Recover the amino acids of this structure.
């Protein structure tokens, strides 16, 4: 029987979305003791994300998968009039992926969750960034430097793992086959608890299922008819 000692546990940053959900579910299927972290920063879509994160974890129903640990990291003072806190001028389906960049995002999330891990004897924190991410704070050098900065106390070692970094979106989606992906949530502008169907992240979600040749079980509030639908 596998040990349940804290040093074999792994923390995972979990937004409730596809990539981090597949990471959480895959690690749980591998028998790891998983502690998911949901960071609450006051962004407009977080209520639905947190609801999805909790539903997903319960549906995976692995005895070694913990309920999400919710950590508050208010950013309204920092982001001020940013679309992520106002909900105005949300990047739509036609916007480039760079439009959804959130300043300092990965550094802020990692420092909060990694510190929790260090305080609770967890030596590894995973984040579901893909190798195809266009953002500077998703690449090797950023994480190597961040890990070195966090790892300065020998009594509390922490390794930052990126198990999906060698994969593209299609590979990640196929890794997630059999997981309750219908319970994940990835939308910047939820409508009555549903995916809006019109934002940048909804477009990315549709494209992910389509490119992986998997049925998309998501209920969208609106369909978007544009050229991308036919790609
Ligand atoms: Zn949306």
């Amino acid at each position: 029987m596998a040990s349940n000692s804290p040093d074999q546990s792994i923390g995972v940053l979990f937004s409730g979305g596809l990539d981090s959900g597949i990471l959480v579910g895959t690690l749980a299927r591998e028998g790891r003791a998983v502690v998911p972290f949901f960071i609450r920063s006051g962004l407009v879509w977080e209520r639905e994300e947190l609801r999805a994160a909790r539903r997903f974890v319960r549906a995976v129903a692995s005895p070694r998968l913990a309920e999400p640990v919710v950590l508050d990291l208010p950013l309204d003072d920092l982001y001020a009039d940013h679309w992520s806190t106002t909900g105005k001028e949300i990047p739509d389906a036609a916007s480039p992926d760079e439009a959804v960049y959130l300043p300092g995002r990965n550094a802020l999330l990692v420092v909060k969750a990694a510190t929790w891990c260090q305080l609770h004897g967890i030596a590894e924190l995973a984040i579901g960034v893909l190798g195809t991410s266009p953002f500077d704070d998703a690449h090797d050098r950023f994480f190597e430097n961040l890990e070195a900065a966090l790892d300065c106390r020998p009594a509390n070692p922490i390794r930052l793992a990126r198990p999906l970094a060698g994969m593209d979106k299609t590979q990640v989606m196929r890794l997630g086959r059999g997981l309750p992906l219908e319970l994940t949530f990835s939308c910047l502008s939820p409508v009555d608890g549903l995916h809006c169907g019109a934002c940048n992240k909804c477009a990315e979600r549709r494209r992910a299922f389509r490119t992986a040749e998997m049925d998309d079980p998501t209920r969208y509030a609106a369909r978007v008819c544009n050229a991308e639908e036919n790609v």
Notes: The CA atoms of residues 63 and 142 lie 34 Å apart. The chain is about 35% helix and 10% strand. The pocket of zinc ion is lined by residues 187-189, 195-196, 198-199, 201-202 (CB under 6 Å).
